Description:
Strand content: 15-25%
Number of strands: 13
CATH superfamily of the largest domain: Endonuclease Chain A
Mean pLDDT: 82
Helix content: 40-55%
Oligomer: single chain
Order of helices and strands: HEHEHHEHEEHHHHHHEHEHEHEEEEHEHH
Strand order of the largest sheet: 6-12-11-10-7-8-9-13
Number of helices: 17
Radius of gyration: 27 Å
CATH architecture of the largest domain: 2-Layer Sandwich
CATH topology of the largest domain: Endonuclease, Chain A
Amino acid sequence: MNTENKANEKKKVFFIAVTDEPDSQNRVYSDFVLNLCLSSISSSDLESKVDVNSFKAHYQLCAGNIKQSLFNKLVEYDCFVVLIDDFNGSFNPNVWFELGVVSTMNCSLVVVASEHVKIPFDSNDIAVLRISSDLKEYCNEVCKSRNINRINWNTEVQQLSNNKSNINQQYKDSYSNFSIDFINHLGTTLKYGNPFNSLYDNAKIRSLGFNGLYDMLVKTRMINLLESNGVTAEYISGEREAFEELAREVRKAKSSLRTTRFANQSIVATETKPFYNEFMDALYFASKNVDKCYRIICNNNHLKWYDIYNVLRYSGSKMKVFVRKQKYSINFELVIIDEVVAFIHFYQTNRSGDKDNESPNKRHDSSVQQIKSTLKITGSHVCRELARIFDRLHHRDIDANEPSDLSRTLLGVENLLTLSEEEKSRGYFSLENYTFTDNAIGIGKKEGKIKEMFNHALNNWEISDIDSEIMRNGIDSINGKEVDLDITDDDNE
């Protein structure tokens, strides 16, 4: 499936609530709220974006271990709706545990509770969708007038939205208000992600000694740059939003494009992979329209060579990929577009036990990092300075008309005062001097030339043992060979 189709797939929503026995009042209430949500989606524009058929509670899916079933769904689903109280307004510890798990994930989340229930966290920060007393009263009346085991809540809820039904208008109005609020909550969280992310970000900023993002910008004097020369800054929380915005801006590139990949693993979580792929597709597209296109990649994982290979394979002829030595990683990612728009991506340490996106059978330790938040900067004054920082990572003489003094941090470039002409061709890969047709024969020749350049570099450049081993494993992986991961698994991961 291509990236565009993947990104356009309907979102899968999972419902978490008190389980109890099938004939219990709490289970009935959970089913009632579930159907309120389903009915609201079905009558809204979100129906085209949400997979209604997969919108179920865990007790509807699992005949065995509910806990195991829940954690299976944590991986599979995009959004979670959590009803945090039961019919009597009490809290179930299992539900709150599950809410705690979901709150740490990079996912969408809607929190639901009864109207008068006091929530033990700040509802000003976390918007809680309320179930009115009228709706609970309607639920109770239905239970009293029906055999509890034979209630079809889908039918009962439909009556609330039927203008011709004999249901009390007060109940209908309450349902209408709930439906509007739920769609707003769901639409917002699908767009902006988990509301707990902002609390985490604020906590991290406070841990650095600042009261908030603005306070940090002021005290570090960064605000002086942002408020001058027409510069603006936007703080983006979450991976999905960052890569969506990044892809949009990259596609607009007209003259230059600079991107990095320093992280030793995939920089995105599994659920964000389609949006990262959308960014890469945008990069390939833009590379064919700009005069200058640079990517810096750190050789700290053999899987990086897939990135180098694909960038050369799918990009335009202007693409030049600089490869940085294993020990010269940097703890952020930088993208600069036309020297007028820049993105700085900051890392968050992964949770222990997370799986590598690109090696599903491999598990991370807690030192592995992924993108957490992003600062988007617009303005030529600051972006030109960021471009100079970027260029300084691959050349010492960036002010020269034709820079040739390569950074000694690049693969194969020795720490010498003066580089020979042959040494000036190391540290990067480019197909600028080659022409390939777009047919199968031309593509095959292009792929062959890339592999030829890799092998030449491996055999002829001055490369340290660890860099050589990582590179060799990367080339072997591209060629479909089994690799020895002893070294690449231990380096700063």
